[in-house]
Amino acid sequence: MSEKGFDAEVLVIGGGPGGSTAAWDLARQGVDVLVLDGAEFPRVKLCAGWITPQILDALELDPEAYPHTISPFSSAVLWVGDTPYRTDYRRPVSYGIIRAEFDHYLLERAREAGARFANETIRTVEAGPEAFEVTTRDGSTYRAPLAIGAGGSKDPIRRQLTTHAPEERMVVTLESETRVGAERIQAHTPYFEVPELFLEPDFNGYAWYFTKGDFLNIGIGRLGDPRIRDAHPRFLEKLRDLGRLTPELEADLTKFRGHPYKIYDSVPNQAHGDRFLLVGDAAGLARHYSGEGIRPAVESARDAAAVARSALERGRFAAKDLEDYPQRLTERYGPQKAPRFDPTRWIPHSWQGRIVEGICRSDRLRRDWVFGRVFLFDPEAAVS
Ligand SMILES: Cc1cc2nc3c(=O)[nH]c(=O)nc-3n(C[C@H](O)[C@H](O)[C@H](O)COP(=O)(O)OP(=O)(O)OC[C@H]3O[C@@H](n4cnc5c(N)ncnc54)[C@H](O)[C@@H]3O)c2cc1C
What is the residue range of the signal peptide feature (predicted)? Predict the structure, then answer.
């Protein structure tokens, strides 16, 4: 413990991609960081594990050198109704990873860079005049000048120190990931290691069937919609009809579980306050429409690390001294306000469906817009 009774210069709550990236970035610049996570790693995280090359760039990670499951995807299939539309690229435009492996790897990398880790569940948090203090489930306390909240949608700083608009909407999900064996998976699908996305009939979300090496990941996500309990059996029925699920395979799948998280939409999120910065799902940064959250977690963590370093240099940690952080998020992801002209308010829902369907059926528009701008968020992928 330091002279002022601090346990670290920065406390990071949560060791997912956001927390471990912030810790890695700070530790390799010589900052004393302590990561606190209630889970023992490797731990399961509900996630399809679809990542883009931009995430690997932000992590400075070479996919060839990554020592765990990483399936390069250079094609994707989009189902609209009963028709599959395949889009092919000349290079891998995304990858499939297993979150238990990926998150453990990133956390170990942060530790190798000098970050410390403690297996602690944080119960209460307090931003006081002298320090940010957290209390654990066992009653221990940790203090630091600054904290980074990276605990996902259940982050204790997000829950206890930030305000939420009543109209805040979450993505509601159900997912199962199982090590089935590559050969067995190949017997069930003509699209091995080609992500299959199934647009929901009302276009309020999508389901997926992802094959990644030995792993099969099946899931569904809908925006702010508890009717997922009806949509999920309908999707499983479709997979059975397509032969993707046989009774033997289904019997071996891990149980479907749910996890809600907030997307970055017109309902503003609070991402900082006195003595704290929030990254990733704790700040509600996942992308609208696709629900991609790993990339925003990593990018925001790098921004938070830069702002934390400059706050430590200046010795100032009030919300107004950390303003640079929300500004960086706005520059990256745009302002969080309702658009001046929202065509969805004027175009009848049945027409909107037909427009989306038309876009998905067009090879060019599917490549440029649906995959290029929504799922991959990589304008370069649109032309490759
Ligand atoms: C079903 C599903 C599928 C998804 N698929 C994709 C996808 O394919 N691609 C993609 O980019 N995104 C996907 N996402 C979103 C993505 O998983 C998240 O956006 C991402 O994990 C956010 O990372 P994070 O570091 O902010 O938080 P998390 O990964 O949630 O990590 C938070 C960590 O904090 C710890 N923690 C929480 N509370 C406490 C506490 N009180 N004390 C101590 N530790 C605590 C947790 O144990 C956890 O380790 C998906 C999400 C779901 C639910």
Answer: none
